[in-house]
Design goal:
By secondary structure, the chain is α+β, with helices and mostly antiparallel strands. It is about 15% helix and about 35% strand. α2 crosses α4 (about 175-185). Residues about 1-15 have low confidence and may be disordered. Bound molecules: zinc ion (ZN). Zinc ion binds next to β3 and α4.
């Protein structure tokens, strides 16, 4: 996997919406010279067509895409569409080309990144367009422009099926497209190689005279708890940055960590920095082929299928800001129902949450009756209690969920 940056500033300014066309900002993914017969099946409700599409993926194919490939590409898009929750359709353009090297499988990335759009929490952080649109609830780029570009290598020996196992000599197209879309949705850093001994992170903004990061960058940590985006700790470009992304690098987001059994999420950080592979993938040794979180590791083998994103990857996307539905979150946890005491109930303005089961810092999620998440509040249950602010919620029934490791505790509240 490698990617190159050929970036072009279109407009900037601190609070005016800014767009950054990421021409060539894509990750190229490579196959592995091994055969691993392992299958992580796709979600049953996507396979049988009963899944509710929470985000519409509009997939467009260039003329070179063979018709027999379209179904597995659409399947991969539908898998994401069943988990992510955006009112704005995600437009994907798929091209099919000879990429000149049989080991290349595909390349993909967001077409554009945005910052300072309406709803952006921090106007100085860049977001891939599909995520920016999910957060702001509106189309940001032109409606005939793709949000994510995927180029599939026509020379790879593809398997087109979406169920069952993959023949030993074939690469599973649905798995590769699912992986590529993950990069396009936001699973990518701005870390880039500048010389043999230095790396850069973020993009220098000439007008602000400041280094700006892409959202994924903000969660990167090298032990002991040093953030790569901490400009006091790391100059960019620098040799220190290179040293920081070899051997051990972690993703430190609340939800991904909770879904990783409370451990920081190991990212791919080989001893020799691999431009494009390092940083923007999960660690291959931790998330092995055939295990539920193997999708976003740097390579896929012949015979291997990973048709579902897995909890850790969903957690990463959630930490980046992707809204996930209540069912998606609960499907990731063992939910222990009615273990949260909530009072007063009915409540208005705020309520008190109480449980003895959780001591760690976590957060409270509040879901409306239709499954939409309406609130996410970091909490520390000091003395087993926390105050949850619910001002602005329309009256009705709500479900409250507090994750703790792989479990979550739930309760119900009526808002007056
Ligand atoms: Zn990749």
């Amino acid at each position: 996997m490698r990617y190159s940056l050929l970036l072009l500033f279109l407009s900037c300014g601190l609070y005016g919406q800014a767009q950054f066309d990421t021409i060539g900002y894509s990750i190229t993914c490579w196959g592995r010279d091994t055969v691993i017969e392992a299958t992580v099946p796709g979600p049953a409700n996507v396979i049988d067509g009963s899944a509710e599409m929470r985000t519409r993926f509009e997939v467009t194919f260039t003329d070179s895409v063979p018709p027999e490939a379209e179904e597995s590409i659409r399947f991969a898009a539908d898998v994401w569409g069943s988990y992510l929750q955006s009112d704005v359709p995600v437009r994907v353009l798929v091209d099919w080309r000879d990429q000149g090297d049989d080991r290349i499988l595909a390349s993909a990335g967001p077409s554009t990144i945005y910052r300072a759009f309406p709803g952006a929490v921090n106007p100085l952080v860049w977001y891939p367009v599909a995520l920016a649109e999910a957060i702001t609830g509106e189309d940001l780029n032109k409606t005939d422009e793709a949000d994510i570009n995927v180029v599939v290598n026509s020379k790879a020996n593809w398997n087109y099926g979406t169920t069952g196992s993959v023949p030993r000599n074939r690469i599973d197209l649905a798995s590769v497209v699912l992986h590529e879309l993950g990069h396009g949705l936001g699973f990518l850093s701005s870390v880039d190689s500048t010389t043999d001994t230095t790396l850069s992170i973020g993009f220098e903004d000439p007008e602000l005279n400041e280094r700006l990061f892409i959202i994924y960058d903000l969660f990167l940590e090298t032990p002991p708890g040093q953030q790569l985006a901490d400009t006091l700790l790391f100059n960019s470009p620098s040799e220190e940055l290179l040293a920081a992304v070899i051997e051990r690098l972690e993703f430190a987001g609340d939800t991904s960590v909770a879904l990783n059994g409370g451990e920081l999420v190991p990212l791919y950080a080989p001893e020799t920095f691999d431009v494009g592979s390092s940083v923007s993938h999960l660690d291959e040794r931790t998330y092995r082929a055939g295990t539920e979180d193997a999708l976003m590791t740097p390579s896929i083998a012949s015979g291997e299928a990973i048709r579902s994103p897995g909890p850790v990857t969903l957690g990463v996307l959630y930490d980046l800001g992707w809204p996930l539905s209540f069912e998606s979150v609960t499907s990731l946890h063992e939910v222990i129902a009615d273990r949260l005491r909530i009072y007063p109930n009915p409540a208005s303005g705020s309520f008190t949450l109480e449980t003895e089961a959780i001591q760690e810092p976590t957060y409270a999620l509040v879901f409306a009756a239709d499954g939409r998440q309406v609130k996410r509040q970091p909490i520390l249950l000091s003395g087993g209690q926390a105050q949850i602010d619910i001002t602005g919620l329309t009256p009705g029934f709500y479900t409250v969920l507090v994750p703790a490791g792989r479990r979550a505790y739930s309760g119900r509240v009526v808002v007056r």
